[in-house]
């Protein structure tokens, strides 16, 4: 729990506080405070421990915390101004941190993990698919997939059988991404993809010797290699099929297949295509599914919010499924989602590394160090969030948010490397939430443990097991 005001700082707490700054452009800057133990940073390498640890360190040291792993400096930047500086104002000085190299073993040179000219070229190429208007065109796919899910819930609802909301959300989100971007259902592949996602997530979340040496035959490495192999093979088959078909389906894959290099006139290699497609499948479903899972959990715990949401849905939709056209009138629905992503950000931390020495909020950030920006920590910053642990969607009303700095809330990061799928995700999450919440209330199965599992995404460790209560407002 983060309770203390956090605007720094007593530099004397840090072993580095009195160190003579090395010569350089910004050599006269102060060293940030932080734990003295030179191995304290090791905790951050184990995601399971890092989440609560980062919160404690912010509470103790303030907005900029300096760690060390041996000689290697590592920083937590928790203040929105510092985050803005890194992601936006001085973004050209930052690349993704070393730990993305691990993710690269799966996603290769896809959009999340590539850098420089290759990233820029691919981003420009892929951006049009995520244009607001294009995303709106995917709305019917989103509504339809939600209705199919609701249909499959009829039986368990009638029999009072429990369902796992997180598994259901993963399935529907995968279906939506598959249909929208690849014109395929991915329903048959859902189980294999789900299993592989869990294996991959667990590999990245746990630091051991095997993660530094991928060829080491540890159990975690073997499980990861198999999962990654399955995913790559699946995507290779999709691409091979589409190359054979040789028809423009007007989806993302058709665009990628048709893309030609301005200078050489060459198309994208199979390897690059695979990296992009796999990246979009993986980045594009687990995140949204996680946001929705936590939202349904929070609603089940806050009947007053649930009632208010239902009132808006009754008024705006009157029992019919939600479509893209409804979204601008579903303001409370959007606020519920934002507040859920504030408390349980699907991506709970991201890492960057400065190419040259930098100054962040008056502190020296040496080149090649690692900088952690944690949505989980900053979304609880007590200067910007009163009673941060409370679930209170009204925080996101226009009046209540107009004076809040942009980066006090950054579930999709920001700057040029902001999530390319943010509009897609928000459209989908609003449609699914509005359509489902009109129909069912979810009741947590008594005794079911709900616990955070901070891996690449912030998952509920044991899923969210609920029974379904049919709402009085029924869909036609
Ligand atoms: C609630 C849902 C989502 C959340 C919270 C989320 C969050 C994020 C965050 C924080 C980043 C920045 C990562 C970094 O800087 O290291 C990111 C990047 C990215 N996301 Fe999302 N995302 C979501 C949904 C989606 C969807 C639906 C797609 C695609 C269909 C997608 C595709 C991507 C891609 C390709 C990138 C890399 C962009 C680049 O570097 O150019 N995401 N996302």
How many structural domains does the protein architecture include? 1
The general outline is globular
Radius of gyration: 23 Å
* Number of continuous helical runs: 17
Question: What is the CATH class?
Answer: Mainly Alpha
Structural class: alpha+beta
- What is the CATH superfamily classification? Cytochrome P450
Order of helix and strand elements from N to C terminus: HEEHEHHHHEHHHHHHHHEEEEHHHEEEE
- Distance between the ends: 44 Å
Can you count the beta strands? Answer: 12
Q: Residue share in helices?
A: 40-55%
Word description of this protein:
It is a single chain. The longest helix has 32 residues. This protein has 476 residues and is α+β, with helices and mostly antiparallel strands. The chain has one domain: Cytochrome P450 (Cytochrome p450, Orthogonal Bundle), CATH 1.10.630.10. The N terminus is likely disordered. It is globular. The two termini are 44 Å apart. The strands form 4 sheets. Strands 1-2-8-5-3 form a 5-stranded mixed beta sheet. The chain has a 3-stranded antiparallel beta sheet with strand order 4-12-9. β1 and β2 form a beta hairpin.
Essential attributes:
476 residues; alpha+beta; Cytochrome p450; three-stranded antiparallel sheet; 17 helices; 48% helix; globular
